[in-house]
Amino acid sequence: MDQGRLIVVGGSGVIGTSVVNTARQSAIPVVATAHRRTTPDAIKFEMISGDLTCSIPDIGNQDTVLILAAYGSPGWIFENQAKARELNVDATVRLVKTCQDRGASVFFMSTDQVFDGRDGGYTEEVSPNPLNLYGRMKVEVEDFLLSLEGNHCVMRTGWNVPGDPDSHCAVKDAYHHLLSGNARMAYDNLINISDINDTARGVVELAKLPDRPKIVHLAACPAVSRTQLCEWIIAESTFGDKMSFEPIRFSELTYSEPRPTNAWLDNGLAVGSLGLTFTPPEKTVRAKVRLLDALQRVN
Ligand SMILES: NC(=O)c1ccc[n+]([C@@H]2O[C@H](COP(=O)([O-])OP(=O)(O)OC[C@H]3O[C@@H](n4cnc5c(N)ncnc54)[C@H](OP(=O)(O)O)[C@@H]3O)[C@@H](O)[C@H]2O)c1
């Protein structure tokens, strides 16, 4: 990156926190922005009404701006379409234009939800075909960024598992469902389950590269079915004997909008060409279960 900074917009979120910590450990100059969860280490920045050049006046062509600030719940986005568009599309495109005007590179974090989920194992070459509004909004920004000249990169990821017991993730959700006694889990719904620190390391390694790929998938493979995830949780948890689930087809679950059944991302470019590594999903799941068990014993 040649002395440029990694400016993390959304540095107080789950992925942002991990990226900022990883960058600091790698001695990469990093600046984090926060909106509501401000800390002395972060610059306050509100993306809808604010201008990043007011918060970071010297932003320039050595810098890379990682855009993480967004609404990420497909259900919430469907219910709050205007509000979601304001942040996830309008403010994001404005921020990309600001970066482009200053000559800064942009990393945009997108999602597996840009794919229709008919095939699974999506590589960077496959064209998106989103089924829901969250995915369509991500594609709008992806397309805009990809239309620009510059050293920009669209990053896509699947479910990330943070190493704290409080943040919501696929493992925590499943763990609590399994304890509820009425869990229904789809055996044909395949997802990536990644250790968030591996995703963060991927971002930081890409920031160091003078030439970045236009699109890269940052996710652990192989894909995991929801039922396999549950079997690992039950096997690892000391509360496993209190957990149960009914295996179902994904189509039996009702959502306000369609969800892709099998949208998992292939990580061949990240691993094979860029040399990134990802913890095997089973190891990530079992480590998270041990954390959740410790919390469950206290409560
Ligand atoms: N987590 C995953 O597994 C996952 C999977 C696929 C894709 N993604 C994508 O990755 C990105 C980051 O996800 P995440 O899970 O880290 O999200 P998150 O934990 O919800 O964090 C969102 C971040 O955005 C900031 N933010 C929210 N509204 C803002 C606004 N109006 N102006 C400026 N900043 C604002 C938040 O700041 P405050 O908290 O300080 O208010 C926070 O730092 C998202 O684009 C998401 O779609 C995440």
How would you portray this structure in words?
- With 299 residues, the chain is α/β, with parallel strands linked by helices.
- The chain has a single domain (6-223, 256-298), classed as 3-Layer(aba) Sandwich (Rossmann fold).
- 39% of the residues lie in helices and 16% in strands.
- It is built from ten helices and 13 strands.
- It has helices at 14-25, 52-55, 74-79, 81-102, 133-146, 170-180, 196-208, 226-236, 268-273, 281-298; strands spanning 6-9, 30-34, 42-44, 64-67, 105-111, 153-157, 159-161, 183-186, 190-191, 193-195, 215-217, 224-225, 245-248.
- The strands form four sheets. A seven-stranded parallel beta sheet has the order 3-2-1-4-5-6-11, with helices on both faces. Strands 7-10 form a two-stranded parallel ribbon. A two-stranded parallel ribbon has the order 8-13.
- Strand 5 (105-111), helix 5 (133-146) and strand 6 form a beta-alpha-beta unit.
- The longest helix is centred in the N-terminal third of the chain and has 22 residues, at 81-102.
- The protein starts with 5 loop residues before the first strand and ends with a helix.
- The mean pLDDT is 96.
- Bound molecules: NADP nicotinamide-adenine-dinucleotide phosphate (NAP).
